[in-house]
Amino acid sequence: MYIYYLILLLYLIKLFIYLATIFQQNHYDYKKYFKSLKKYYFYKPYQYKYYISLLFVFLSIISKYFLIFACISLILSFIFKNKYIIKLRITKRIIRLVITNIILSVGYFILTSKIIYLFSIYPLILPYILILSNLINKPIELLIAKYYYKKAKKKLELYPNLVKIGITGSFGKTSTKDILNSVLEKEYLTLKTPASYNTLMGLSYTINNHDLKLLDFLILEMGAFKSGEIKQMSSLFKPNIRVITEIGMQHMSTFKTISNVIKAKFEITSNICSDDILILNYENEYIRNYDLTNINTNKIYTYGINYGNITTRNIEYFNDKIKFDIYYHNQYKTTINSKLISKSNIMNILSCYSVVIALRDLNYKISDEVVKDVISNIAPSPHRMEYKKVNNITIYDDSYSSNIVGFINACEVLKKQKGKRIIITPGIVDGGIYDRLLNEQISSHIINTFDEIYLINNKSSKIIEESLIKHKKDYYTYDRFIDAYNTIISKYSNTSLDIYLLIENDLPDSFIER
Question: Which pTM was predicted?
Fold first, then answer.
């Protein structure tokens, strides 16, 4: 019996790490966490071996020899390794969560130590113990969070000459931030929020843990999962330059309607001062049609391929790069050559260049030669239209986070390639009430662009499947991305064909195995 308890304890530690990872990467959101549990916890393949062990535990009431089979089954479940795209970050919050969870768990074990089947069902209870631990910790977490927010705000107030650039949008935030940082750091001391530290706590962490004394620019990526979050960031950190990159149907499962998204993104203009600068993507119709009369600044810069005062002309797409000219008030400024393929990246570069123009008007010296040189050497961020070759197969990896604009733009890039065009995609999976509309829209682009279509099985891909059947278009369905990918590689690698593969694989939860 003691051996069984030891194995179960080790198994519980493994499960807790996995559950904490899911919870953390869902930003401690209960609704998303519970939604994830159904698919990624209770129905995990190795969990079925645990369920079998549980059956043997109940049978041990008849004969204790069944505990041997329970141990074997539990060991088989334990040895299966979870694979993470992003591992659990050991933060102080996670440590506090662990401590509270241990206290509750020990209490449960003391009460059930002599009733083996109650002890054994703890893996089924553990997800809810984690939630209970978080609820217990919530008051202290709120106090700690407020302390760090105020600390970051006071620290920024010590450096009034530091130019703060806030970037928000449904998509394009991270790419714009990274491009802009690369350009500015060529001439100035610059700090950007790392990775996707785009929450209020992430911004506070960046500010509190870096020396701002000698900095010229601080670039803050501002993300949001609900209304009010960007307003709070803008009020606390007061960006001097505020950028809205895009507005679209992203995170619709939480925002519900496009009007809520528009309202949330324009919260970046709350508390804006007359001396602050606002930069807007006028290629986006939601932004272009927004009423700006109540925004308290006249320093507004607009950009777009066809709209705005900073525009492009003579766009050319190649296999591994793009080329285009930038104009400001119809005056030629510079020609950009970039490895950042797709129209979405043209918009990200334009967003960056708009900030450069705004900074020039503030007497910061950033030459077009520097901009051109830096942008020409920037490699695509991982999984954001990342370009690579595997033998005769050209792969465009756009799997980071799919959206309707990026999806269509990626299709446009592939359409220009002369060869066999293939796509792997689960569709757009975070569309909320717009799920059918979005996936029906991309279906027509998939049908008109690709010779072979590989769908990753889920609710959204079923909508694409309906369109493919209607148009009598052949396709393949796989449960896992890696199986579809390996099929294509083995089928076409080392053939004489020129293969162009687009991976448009929207994975909203980072812990999902690719």
Answer: 0.80
